[in-house]
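Here we describe the complex-level prediction in full. Unlike the single-chain runs in Section 2.1, the two entities below were treated as one system.
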Amino acid sequence: MSRPDAKQVKVMTEVAGVPQDTEVAERIARSIGPAFDGFAPVAGTLPMDLEPATFLLVQNAGVSK
Amino acid sequence: MSGEPALMSMIDVANAIRDRKISSREATQSCLDRIAKWQPHLNAYMAIETEEALAAADAADAALAKGKIAGPLHGVPMAHKDMYYDAGKVTTCGSKIRRDFVPTTTSTALQRLKDAGTVRLGSLQMVEFAYGPTGHNPHYGAVRNPWNVDHITGGSSSGSGSAVGARLTFAALGSDTGGSIRMPAHFCGVTGFKTTVGLISRAGAMPLSQSLDTVGPLAQTVEDCALLVGLMAGADSADPTTSTRAVPDYMSAATGSMKGMKIGVPTAFYVEDLDPEVARVLDETIATLGKEGAEIVKVELPDQRQLSAACQLVLAAEAAAFHKRWLIERPQDYGAQVLMRLQNGLAIPAVSYLEAMRWRGAALAAHLAAVTGVDAVIAPVAPMPAVTIAESDIGNSHDAEAVIQRITRFTRPINYLGLPSLSIPAGFTAKGLPVGMQLIGRPFDEAGLTRIGAAFQRATDYHQQVPKLP
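The structure predicted for the assembly as a whole is:
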């Protein structure tokens, strides 16, 4: 996963229905870039059978030490 | 009874009212007297409801005279973060957009405290829509730290931290999505309890991120917080995400010692890039925990930066979705910083958001494997004590997000994992600013954290310190 650049951000905000101008898009790209960088080692590596509700299973199983 | 009733702990004042050593009116008037003195300095309250509070206190006293006790907090005055819906009362959520919003329902958490007998003092300030870690608010003004009014309270439960710190309420609800209970507790020198995701109903609490939002209290002591958590916890048909597991007796846990408890000290991340005074307090806290009988062990936690990044992706996307209508219709009515952060969420692709959600279970499993046999992990709440309001007034500057991420560095990973975390006052800087430490527990083990935290507070007196009027 790579961080979106300002041009991509501009398109994404338009698709989201809340279009932003170029200056805001540049600012957004700078702000969220580190989150994409930080998550990059995980992105694209998850096994197919993992789904969000797994969290609840692990949470309930992890009560006792 | 000698001294100011407002300086008592919540449990002590509840007991004193029930035993008729003081009346609810006296306790309420004591809080109102302190509010009148401190509010001009702190801006902690959003609304102060003097007449209504005194009338409710009188009603509580009258009921008690007839032998009727509503619950364990009968007649105890309180105010909460202005995002808990209270039917018929304006609930601003710290925003211009909801300046005149009057909910028609009452939040489950608040209702359960009302059922326990509490008296409403008013409502407390907060960061706009609970989306900021410093305590600034462009619509209602920054809330100020009672230990030094030039410094931040932390956010987003800024009024809760400030008001409890100055003893303007016996306790206050906060909410914690990325650290918003623990940071004000740390910066303002009070106890704050971020609960396990799913322990307390979020029904009627303003949403920010449905996956990360948690309800919890700030108060003077661990026991106060534990009693409040116990009163609020448990299944709620209005919030089907709330756990159906039985609620333990947290108050009996508070009487236990630290003997037999194993506390983990992280070998990385939480011990890096610390302000020297925070590092000193961490060392002192570990020493106290060991002296009180806890076994101290090193723990190697998984990469916390990845957890933090995942938290950012989830929070940004969910917050933007909640606010999309107003982002289209009323963008001019947001403060600059909150608007900026909400806009960030528009650029999180659905696949990235869902990957972050899918990884959550695996990440929690990895964390639990790393802390096998450990009751709690000790860590600073933030790398630094409270900075000044001026130096953290970042608005929508290019550096704003980086500054926000630094302040919330040690809290966000815990929100992503959905774990409970108890913030306890643990020391002071040379300049008199409080420093808090967080005890991070296992899922739904608020009882274990209560046991450790209460034992720590029996061995220390940081939580009993009261700031002086400026």
